[in-house]
Write a structure and sequence with these properties.
Blueprint (H helix, E strand, L loop, with lengths): L2 E7 L12 E7 L7 E10 L3 H5 L20 E8 L11 E4 L6 E5 L3 E3 L16 H13 L7 E4 L5 H12 L4 E6 L2 H9 L5 E4 H6 L4 H8 L4 E6 L3 H10 E9 L19 H5 L3 E4 L9 H13 L7 E5 L4 H9 L6 E5 L3
Parallel strand pairs: 8-9, 8-11, 9-10, 11-12, 12-13, 14-15
Antiparallel strand pairs: 1-2, 3-4, 3-6, 3-15, 4-5, 5-7
Helix pairs in contact: 2-3, 2-9, 6-7
The structure holds NADP nicotinamide-adenine-dinucleotide phosphate.
NADP nicotinamide-adenine-dinucleotide phosphate (NAP) binds next to helix 2, helix 3 and helix 10.
Length: about 350
Amino acid sequence: MSRTREWHLVRRPKGAPTDEDFRLVEVDLPQPRADDVVVRNTWLSVDPYMRGRMDDRKSYVAPFELGAPMDGGAVGVVEQVGSDVHDLTVGDTVLHGHGWRERFVTSRTRVQRVDPDAAPPQAYLGVMGMPGLTAYVGLLAVARMKPDETVFVSGAAGAVGSLVGQIARLKGAAAVIGSAGGPAKTAWLVDELGFDAAIDYKAVRAQGASLRSALREKAPDGVDVYFDNVGGEHLEAAIACLRLNGRAAICGMISQYNAVAPVPGPANLPLLIQNRLTLRGFLVGDHADARPAFAADMSGWLQDGRIVWRETVVDGLENAVAAFRDLLSGGNTGKMLVRLPQ
Ligand code: NAP
């Protein structure tokens, strides 16, 4: 029987996760059945939503169990197929939800073959995968961005945000403004991704200035669409700058994922009435119907070199928790990934 390693959550984090909340465990790999496949992971995704799964509370996805392997998006190579599996072969690349581990045995039905010639395998965890679809549906289906509108996106140098700004530009936005932490990230947005302006929210904070004034300066005529990855002060600043009939796609609120006490809401909600604003939360999982349109658009843009995408790669399963903790504190530009031996 062969052995494999997997990450377990062993304690629910209070505030920011610490190394002591996790344990790397060696286990036996079960014997595959006739309809099973054995997969060796090559890329693991770490995503902000996983922080929510570390808490013991009801949500749209079940909490991680203590003392059990964590899961999440990953890509791997098929090492073995059961005798009843006829549509996958050894060496195929597959996308699946068995992340946070080296190897695993699962039913054929739990993995999906992807074409590693159409895009690098790890792109199916980023630009061609869940974060890409999130950006696409959030901007176009949820916020219903139209040509000639002004778009503001927070978390703009991350996996989702960096694509939101570029899709907005490709779909004819009049101006795209992004917010991110630090000068290297804001320079990347403007110099390489084609954003019209970027706000370094950490510099704004360090200067004791307000995010609302910084956004007003970049968008003096206001914003039509806000794509929220951050919540808190960013959401309040966006509400202050949204124009008449403005819309916000509420995608994530990473500024409060580690909060240990209730976080006050935006103080300026009466503006929703005055300016007839729409704030709409969404989950990418509800938008599977948009996948074909997304895949067609995104693969075309990638082929034409019209989308820039970047990865921050951390090597080794033993560093997966460090990668996740770094993601929550802005250690990534573009998609945060863990690379295992190829
Ligand atoms: P990401 O943006 O690649 O990484 C997270 C980024 O958040 C960090 O790089 C950091 O960048 C920023 N951040 C952390 N703490 C912050 C704070 N206090 N204030 C402002 N920024 C902060 O992650 P992602 O995978 O693309 O996800 C982005 C957001 O979308 C998350 O909120 C996530 O939960 C959400 N999401 C939602 C769905 C959905 O279906 N609704 C699907 C996917 C993702 P800086 O250096 O700029 O601070």
